[in-house]
Amino acid sequence: MRKYTTCLIVSFIAEIVLILCAYAEALNADGTQPSSGIFWLLAIVMGIVFGLLFYFLPYAIAKNRKVENCTAVFLVNLLLGWCLIGWAAALIMGCVMKTELQAQIEREVYASVRSLKG
To answer: In this predicted model, what pLDDT tens digit does every residue of 41-98 receive, in sequence order?
Structure first.
């Protein structure tokens, strides 16, 4: 999770720097507001990119943790993430669900307990 958090922070800082550079570049020589739309285009594109990174953060966390049912997290995030409750549910699922390793250990323990019982 730390890797993705760092990636989001770096992308956010890069977005702000690029927007400020584009704004400074687009200023007219006398310091008035930019007349070209390149600043606003860059701001919109960077906003969309950062928004998508943030929107799919629960899926990225689940994928990084190697959650057993990562597809469920993706579908909840994709279909219900547009509302805050669905996004929070996907985030909780990505952080709390069993990982593949935990599920494998659990299956092996159950198999060994069953073999001991008879």
So the answer is: 777 788 888 888 889 999 999 998 889 888 999 999 999 988 889 999 999 999 999 8
Same domain, 75 and 33: no
pTM above 0.70, yes or no: no
Please give the structure tokens belonging to residue 52. Answer: 């998508």
Angle between helices 84-96 and 57-65 (to 10 degrees): 10
Tokens at 84, concatenated: 């805050």
Question: What's the rounded Cα separation, in Å, for the pair 7 and 10?
Answer: 5
| 3-class state of residue 27 by DSSP | coil
Domain termination residue (choose one: 22, 37, 55): 55
Number of folded domains that form the chain: 2
